[in-house]
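Preliminary data (for renewal application), iron/sulfur cluster complex.
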Amino acid sequence: MNPYYKDFSEYMKELYPGIKVQKLSIDAGFTCPNRDGSIGTGGCIYCNNASFTPGYCSPKDSIETQILKGKEFFRRKYPEMKYLAYFQSYTNTFGKSCDRLIKMYEKASEIEDVVGVIIGTRPDCLPEDLLEGLADLNKKKRIIVEIGAETSFLHTLQLINRNHTWDDVEKAVYRLNDKGIRTGLHLIAGLPGEDSGHVLATVRQACRLPIDSIKMHQLQIVKETILHRKWETGEIELTPYTLEEYLDLCVKIINEVPRHICIERFLASSPPDMVIAPKWGLKNYQFTNLLMNKLKYKDPHHGL
Ligand code: SF4
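Predicted structure:
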């Protein structure tokens, strides 16, 4: 067991005792209301969806085919593995009727060896009828909703063109909690105009909410994004974290997050050829090893 914080594997063991569980990303061909004008245009300034959609996902394949391909990949090594269908790309509760959405999640949940469904979305795309449908589905197979929150600071949310507020995040979390649905928040460290104090303040705000997990990552300047263009022209000033600075920040974040909340990950893992900065060239497990060493060195008794 990780002595410093509840990591994703501990969280999964808690939810699915005795079995090994792996997420399988799905691109179900969703779009985004922050791009098509429903909520905003242009999208979040750092967003290039190609950078966080695994290469094996293609909306040309049916959801079933994507899951079967993912299962095939893992089955050779781990024949006993079970899976979480992860609706990851864009806003996975937007642009279809509630009935169609629920049927889609249900279909994914019924595929052999799928033990739950994770749905990534925005805090302002969770209408009441959808929550009711999710609550019903959650009685048959576990549903987890992952909300892009990013920061609690309104001026930053405006600067990065999120087109929602922290209040939207809080309301969404409480409504999901009322329905008994597990919720994770996605946060970004190193947004323009923010220092580590801002990040820690957001983490503290998040931890006051009835959430189950936090997924944190360093801001990456990714090719073909508004952030990339504005950073190059100097319109946005930003000094990405060095690896050492970010590791130090992660130690502080761990100290803020109570043990009952899982910290799912700290590292963004966009394809290296799409990342302009920071270029650390680390895989998630390599970053975690560095973090563990730092934690051991800083406070060998923390969490024990
Ligand atoms: S990060 Fe999410 S909300 Fe923002 S533009 Fe990309 S898909 Fe849309």
